[in-house]
Amino acid sequence: MPEARALTKREQEVIRLVAEGYKNREVAEKLGIRVKTVETHRANIMNKLALRNVAQLIRYAIQKGLVKIDQEAFEESIR
Questions:
Q1: CA distance 1 to 73
Q2: Of the residues 38, 49, 65, 71, which has the maximum number of CB atoms within 10 A of its CB?
Q3: Are 17 and 26 in contact (CB under 8 A)?
Q4: pTM for the full model?
């Protein structure tokens, strides 16, 4: 697998919001940018990190500390 390239600050913001479950439109509203710009950032993130799907993107965000999971809430949600 190729070495992942560094994400820009804006890409980190986008990946954090996507991993938290926000839709492209919601991300755009929160960041004050167009939906098309969010889509471009997402495509760039996926390419830079060689990710194939949103599940991999979320896993990356958690591993890198871009989002935190509440372990108790998580365990409760899967019961």
A1: 33
A2: 38
A3: yes
A4: 0.79
